[in-house]
Each structure stands twice: as C-alpha cells, then as structure tokens.
Design a protein that fits this description.
four-stranded antiparallel β-sheet, homodimer, about 425 residues
C-alpha cells in the first residue's frame, strides 16, 4: 500500500475513532500499558541494538541518553499512560446549548481534530506518549520518530498497534513512518492530515512550516529573555538567570538574553558575572556592561541567536519600555520574565510583552506542560491561534456545532414570518 | 512610507491597543458610530460615485446591491456598532488560576491575537463591521476591500480613523490597503501579521492559503449536503431542500447535493422534482433517480462542484453510512444536514460527519454567526484548529500564561528539593 492509501485509510478511520466512548479509549490505553510491560524484554533488546548502532555512528552522549529505553523509562511511560486514563474524557463536552427558536437547538460539542502527524526526536518514550495522547483524545496519529530509535520504535509500535486492535478500537488509527522520505509525502496530503506537530531543531520545524499547507502546531525557536528591572531583588535575579540559562541549555525555554535597567547595572553586573563564570557560562555583553568589568564582546547577531549552549548575552536598557520593545522585536514570543519587586512594573511587562508566557520573579524554564500541571504535554506553541504555550490534551481537541430542528427554513426568518429568540439552556 | 514600515508600525502598536480597557475601546466604538452618522452625506456621495463607476464598468446587479451604502445600511452598521459595545469585554478574562507551589501562581488570561489582515468583498458595511470587531477585541487591522467600493471605503476609513484617534486609542492601529498589488506584500510579512481572514471566491481564498505562511481563517468552498434518511418526513424534507438551495444561492452554506436513502426514493423524488422545478432549480440526478422521471444527467464532477447557482445534484445511497462516507469524502466540512425522524440515525450522522455544522431537520442556511446568536460574525471557518464554523468575537482572541513567582528556579524541582503542589484557585 502506498503512503497516500495509508493516509486515506487513517482519514476514513478518524470518524470511527471519534465515535468511541471514553471508556473504550481508556481500555485501549490500559491494554497498551500491559502489552508494553509484557513485551519489555523484546523492547529492551531492540533498544540495545539501536544503542549499539548509535555507538558505531558516534552519536553524542545526550542523544544516547534520550535514546535509551530501560526499566526506568518503562516505568515512566506506563505511569504516564495510567495517569492519562484518570483524566476526564476531553470529547463530547457540551460547551454551549442554545435555543435559537422553538424546537431549534444549537449544541457546541468537543470532538477530536482528526488525523495528527507527529514528527519527533529519537526518544522511544515520545512514541508511547504521543500515541497515548492521541488515543485519549480520539485522534488518529501518524508517527515518525528519529531514525536512531528505528528498531525500538518499530517494536513499540507493533506492541501498541496489537494492543489497540485487541482492545476493540477501530483499525487503521495509527500509522508509523520509518523513512525520512515519507515526511515529504506526509506534508503533501492536506486532505488527509489535519494537523502537524513537528518537534526538533529550528531549521527542521521551519522546513515543515514552509513546505506544507497543513496547519502546524509548535515552535521553531525559543529566544527567551530575562529583564532585570530597576526594582529587582538581586538575590532573586541571579539564581533565576543561572537556572534559566543552565538548568537545561538545549531546551527552548532556556534564557538567551538578559536585559538590565541602567539604574541597577552597577549592583547586579559584578555578582552576575561571577555567578555565570562559576556556572561555566560565557557572557557576551554590551560595551556599558563590559566597562563594569564583565563579559566578552557581543554583536547585533547575538540579539537574535538561540544559543542552546552555555552562552548568554546581556545589554542595558533605558527603561522597562525599551525592554518590552526589544523583547517583542527580537524574541520568539515563547517565554520572557521580569525580575522586579514592583508589581506595577510587572503588570505592565506582562500586559505588553507579546509572548505565550510572561513571568515575574521565576525561571523561564517553568514553561512546560508538566510544570503547569497539565499532566501531559504535546508540545509548546508560539502561535497565537488554537493552543498557545505548553499544550496539553486540549490542544488536540476541536468542536462542532450540532443543530437540532423540526423542519425550520431560513426563508421564514429572512421574511420576518418567524424571529429568533435566543435562550442559553446551559 | 512603504508597506513594510506601515505593517511594522501596526505590529508595534498592537501591544498598546491590547493594553486598553474595555471602556476605552467601547468609547472609540461610540465615537466611530457618531462620526459615521455625522459624515453620512460625504459617505453617500462617495458611494454614489462608486455606483456610477460600477454602472460604467457593467458590474452585475447583485454586486451593485452589496456595493450600495444608503440610509438603510447606515442604520444597520450603526446599530451593529452599538450592539458590539453592549457585549462583554473579551479581553483580560481569567480562564485559569492555579497555584503550582507556594507563591508560584499561574494565570491563563485572554488577550488579542495582534494584527489581523482582512481581505473582503466590495461591501462598504463590511469595512465598518470588521474595524469595529477588531477594535472591540483589541486587534490591529489591515483592511483591503473590493476595488469597486474604493471611494466609499476611503471615505469611511478616514472617518473611522479620525474618530479612533480622537477617542484616545493608540495611533497606527488601523491600516487601509487600496491597491490589489499590496495584497502580495501583506502575505509576505508573517513577522508583522498574525492572522489573515480572506473573504471571497474559492479561488481567491485558496490563493491566499497557498501563498502565505500567515495562518488563514476562513473557508475556500462550501459543498453542503442534505441527506434524506429512510425515516425522513417528506413534508419537512422538501421545504428544507428548497430553502437550503434557493434562499441565497451564492452563499457558502447553500446546499449543492442531496443524498437519498434508496428506501424512500419513490416517495420523495416526484414531489422534490416538482418543488425544485417550481423554484427554478435545475436538478442533476443519478440514473436511478432519473428512472423515476426527474432530473438531467449528472457526472462525477457534480459530486464535488459548488454551483453557487440554481442547480442541485441528487443521488441515492444504500444506507446512512454510505451517505456519511460520501459527505466526508466529497464535502468541504462546512455544514451538512440529515432529514430524519429517527433520533438514533440523526445521532450517528451528527457524530460521524466531520463538518463544522451537522444539522437535523433544518436548512443548512442556518450556518451563520447572526443566526447562531453570536451578534457579529468574522467569517465561517472550515478548519479544525482555533475557531470552527461561524466565528464571532472569540475567534479574534488568544490567551497568554502569566506566572507570578517569588524567586523560584526549576533546579529545585528537578533535584527534588521542592515539589509541585497543584491547586486550582478558580
């Protein structure tokens, strides 16, 4: 079967999956958890083979860390699935019930999006998580994982697919893609795929956004800022900046630029320079800051660079409004923080900065579905349509309008023979 | 100033507009309504000139009808603006307030999308409506209206812009584009424009979708179906089909195809054929239906044609599931109706048909923001992300996450020194 036929089958299965009850979908999730546990040795063996190939290919240590699927990861994914079964069913929620006129009732009800294509990094646990989230939300899923995890993913997919079928859910609700070339096929078929969620490097996400008519949820870059206001508490500012930069440098919510109000420069620059040095961070700073004895030369390019590394840039600003303008211009609308004890300044910053997350006195690294208490995360969106910021299950949900009538025609309302009589029933 | 500079100014003004209160925005709306009334003679004069040009250019009667801006339209737009001021402010609504841990509070709050580009037909009242909706929702707007209304639009825009400035809202929140060539400029600047709402022909909307990275809200086509179930009440079916086809043939929610359960063919085809003939509608029908004495030959192309004219196609189906498959395959996911007295059949149809609107026993022409009681309509979306179906003010709204801390860093939670303690405060 070619890719088009496979995608078409998924699209045809989508309404059938959308029509299953929350209990049926939860039963499938429990079956997946059990099957993964039962087949763990087969999965571990496939993962060992992937790890050996990665060793031969000279893959970096962090990539190998994400690639590894061991007892610990097994427990995590199984617990994750069990947590999901405990969440309320996101489907069939009535968001509005309105009588338009006698015997003419409009109901707005949640439903799945349909077919979701997820392209993700070489992390086998991601395959399990994404499948589980899509099943919970009643969406068909096309899964393309990083090639380094090919053998583990193939085994996991077989196990998941088997469990789904045995649990009684419709056929053809999951599709695995293995070859990189299939991605360009996936991007073409906007009649079969409703949403793409690409995770990975900036260049990759941008490639997807530019080469498909299918809507994309996600973010291509994360240039997060910390603005140290004149009323900042330096004792708070320094650990926050160090955490936001170093707690996980390759994350999209790591800070890349510090903006400092000129009135507080002398107070914060020396201890900040020292703290960054101790944390192994290279500081690239404006001339004014370097005159205070800290930092290497920065260029304009640094203002718009996502380092994803132990490097941070810093420059002074005249006032909070310059900081806001800088962030709205150079930032990626992901997550930006102000450090201040002045609640008016914080409120102004948080209203005017046009980002998914606007923080006061805490690390940008909190921008994450788990830390927001969403239970599970699909990704982080910097778009302003549909879901924004860390996206939980609700990002996989749409709605439809059901209108129940008794023979009504519009001609009667247009001519004035009848008139609407709106009444919200819930 | 070139287009890029103008768009950039809008983008910079967007946070300032987002920061205004509901009262300030309502005052601007009232000022617009007053200014339009005060300048009505100037506007009517410009409109008369547009109508004369249209006469010379041989523009069709329906287009001239939409182009006309008279006392009646004036009253409509002024009442529309006044209605808008009565709606609650869609901004600053707190949708979630969650304590993540002590002194670490996450707030999800609605905000505008930012800069919205609307490209609309030659209807001067549309310019007023769209400006008003954008101001109410705190969005900057780029307005490009149909060229036939150029003089009226220019006058209206001057009047509106003047009223907005006098009312004290920020500068540069509205931008008018007049030349068709500017559209391609608009499509290029995804860094300044957050959302496009194109209204117009299928080909035009598809062109916009294919030529911009900016998200698009709307629909390119409306192929709406009416399925007459075996348990249909023929007395209801016929007026509904006639209304759905003829009440306004060039609307996207007009019906294009009737699917008839084979068990009810003999009962419905003769009276339906007669009713359509009386309404001046050409029926193109499958062989089985033609054998019952009604209809012209239809081809496969008819299944996927949006006639926008007094033409309708009809074919028989084996059962409800064939109807559902047909609609999901050939339809445009806009609005589709079932005629049946069987509530189980209706429920199945409404669950499995993947359209923004799924109706029982009423005309597809009800798919409209005003008829849904939304007060005002931005457009109708056939996409499943963000807003779906008729879109009111809420389609112009996004949200942001505000996180209020007291120095928290993620390292403390990752190391286990601290742990999250999620508690919903509202």
């Amino acid at each position: 079967m070619n890719t088009e036929m496979k995608l078409r089958k998924l699209k045809e299965a989508a309404p059938m999956l959308a029509d299953t009850s929350g209990d049926e979908r939860n039963r499938a999730l429990m079956a997946i958890a059990e099957a993964i546990y039962k087949n763990r040795e087969r999965i571990f063996a496939a993962n060992r083979a992937d790890l050996e190939n990665a060793e031969i290919d000279g893959v970096s240590a962090p990539v190998k860390g994400r690639l590894k699927f061991d007892d610990h990861k097994l427990e995590d994914v199984i617990n994750g699935i069990k947590d999901l079964t405990g969440l309320p069913d996101p489907l069939f929620k009535v968001e509005m019930r309105r009588e338009l006129d006698e015997d003419l009732v409009l109901v707005k009800e949640t439903c799945p999006i349909g077919v979701i294509g997820v392209i993700f990094e070489a992390r086998p646990d991601a395959l399990v998580q994404i499948s589980a989230l899509c099943i919970k939300s009643g969406n068909c899923a096309v899964l393309k994982g990083g090639s380094e995890a090919a053998l583990t993913n193939r085994t996991l997919f077989e196990v998941i697919e088997g469990a789904v079928l045995e649990s009684g859910l419709p056929e053809n609700i999951l599709l695995q893609m293995e070859a990189r070339e299939e991605i360009s096929e996936l991007l073409k078929y906007d009649e079969y795929v409703d949403l793409l969620i690409p995770r990975g490097s900036n260049a990759f996400v941008r490639y997807i956004m530019e080469n498909s008519r299918i809507p994309v949820m996600g973010h291509s870059s994360g240039i997060c800022h910390i603005y140290v206001d004149k009323d900042a508490d330096v004792e708070k500012a320094i650990p926050i900046i160090v955490d936001a930069k170093t707690q996980y440098v390759s994350a999209c919510n790591a800070a890349e630029t510090v903006l400092i109000h000129r009135d507080i420069l002398e107070k914060i620059v020396p201890p900040l320079g020292k703290a960054l040095k101790e944390a192994g961070v290279e500081l690239r700073a404006s001339e004014v800051i370097r005159k205070l004895g800290e930092g290497e030369v920065m260029t304009e390019k640094d203002d718009s660079t996502e380092y994803l590394d132990y490097i941070i840039s810093a420059r002074e600003v005249e006032d909070i409004d310059e900081a806001i303008r800088h962030i709205n211009h150079f930032g990626s609308h992901h997550t930006d923080a102000i450090i201040t004890e002045n609640s008016e300044a914080a409120a102004r910053f948080m209203r005017l900065v046009d980002s998914a997350g606007v923080y006061q006195n805490c690390s940008t690294r909190f921008a994450d579905g788990y830390r927001y208490g969403f239970g599970a995360e699909v990704g982080i969106s910097t778009g302003k349509l549909h879901a924004r910021g860390p996206v939980g299950l609700e990002g996989l949900i749409s709605y439809k309008y059901k209108l129940f009538g008794a023979g009504q025609i519009v001609g009667d309302y247009a001519s004035g023979r009848k008139s609407f009589n709106f009444k919200d029933l819930i």
